[in-house]
Design brief:
Helix content: 25-40%
Radius of gyration: 23 Å
Largest sheet: 12 strands, mixed
Number of strands: 12
Strand content: 15-25%
Strand order of the largest sheet: 3-4-2-1-5-12-11-6-7-10-8-9
Shape: globular
Length: 363
């Protein structure tokens, strides 16, 4: 089936159910035509979602299944991980809500590995509570990196603004020791490839931010720009990747500057995410770049303060779903394009012809 016609199976982990996760998930599914665009597969609890849809007065009918392989197109599929009653205490994390967040994430990941879903969209989790229960990671990115034994890149995206971060959930005191020339080069290559394969940008222009105020002011406020970041940019540029900077972070995020680039690599979490969340507001999507599958999430947290009040905005979660679908189709089309390009050369070589050799001419 052509990637354009494939109805993408979107696996959804529910996050902490005492936050706004179930509310924003269900609000995204209220339009009865939504299943014309994708097949939702939620990893949660039928009784939990029935309870919460009544709170929010939402008219939804779920197709309860035991295995994700049983999901049906045209229906709102719910993998019923917990069949017993669930104790809901909206507005605060509990052991039960934290355990289900972990179970939901692990079940969705297993379904992806088995090929029962095509992409994962993750609702917000409480990282602290999950770590207390034995979860080894301070976020989704580290979990997926370990699960697939491959480094990813935290990448926040909208149509007009795309920001990756070189370091993410580590103390600010450890940022400088966690950047290096080779790491930055690897991340920019990953970012460049992601922009080409996943976002259909044929020749990306990537901006890189400095680590220190004013990008170090020529070494007066720090030497990381001179010793690490500038050499990485120069080597990548010499090899055909359009990389620019390092730019001072305090003045970079002006429309006439950031819009000149296809993506930005920030050195640490808040340097990239603070301006992104200010500019993108509720449209932003968190995308884990560089992994062999597609994972997105909204760019906000569990929001315990508004849980149960029926005021949570589902726009970022909806954007996360459709970004995952778009990236999946872009990636499939890219693979198809590469295969079509390689096929004539393979046929030629099978016939003893090397297409790269010039034709012989008479003397």
């Amino acid at each position: 089936m052509s990637p354009k016609n494939h109805k993408v199976r979107v696996g959804i982990s529910i996050g902490d159910f005492n936050g706004i996760g179930p509310e924003i998930i269900m609000k995204c599914l209220t339009d009865k035509t939504i299943t014309d665009f994708f097949t939702p597969v939620i990893f949660g609890s039928g009784k939990l979602f029935t309870y919460q849809k009544n709170i929010f007065k939402l008219n939804l009918n779920f197709n309860y299944i035991n295995e994700p392989s049983q999901a049906q197109a045209g229906k709102l599929n719910m993998v019923n991980l917990v069949k017993d009653n669930v104790n809901v205490e909206l507005g605060k994390p509990t052991e039960e809500s934290t355990k289900m967040a972990i179970d939901s994430l692990e079940a969705a990941t297993e379904a992806l590995i088995k090929g029962d879903i095509d992409v994962i969209v993750t609702a917000p989790i409480n990282k602290d509570e999950m770590v207390k229960m034995g979860f080894k990671h301070t976020g989704h990115t580290g979990y997926f990196e370990e699960k697939f034994n491959k480094k990813g890149l935290m990448f926040l995206v909208t149509e007009d603004l795309k920001v990756a971060v070189s370091t993410h959930h580590i103390p600010i005191s450890k940022v400088a020791e966690n950047i290096s020339k080779e790491k930055i080069k690897k991340q920019i290559r990953m970012l460049n490839q992601t922009l080409i394969e996943d976002f259909n940008i044929s020749k990306p222009k990537i901006a890189v931010l400095g680590l220190n105020p004013h990008s170090g002011d020529g070494g007066v406020i720090g030497t990381e720009e001179i010793e690490i970041i500038e050499p990485a940019i120069r080597e990548l540029s010499d090899n055909g990747i359009l990389t620019f900077g390092p730019f001072p972070a305090d003045s970079f995020f002006q429309p006439n500057k950031y819009k000149s680039f296809d993506a930005v690599l920030a050195m640490y979490h808040d340097q990239g995410l603070a301006p992104f969340k200010t500019l993108a507001y509720e449209e932003g999507v968190n995308y884990t770049a560089g992994l062999p599958f597609i994972r997105t999430s909204p760019d906000h947290g569990v929001a315990y303060d508004i849980a149960g009040k029926n005021v949570a905005d589902a726009q970022s979660f909806m954007e996360s779903i459709f970004t995952a679908i778009k990236v999946f189709k872009n990636r499939e089309e890219y693979k198809e394009l590469m295969q079509n390009r390689l096929q004539p050369r393979k046929m030629a070589m099978d016939n003893g012809i090397d297409e790269d050799l010039p034709e012989e001419t008479e003397a």
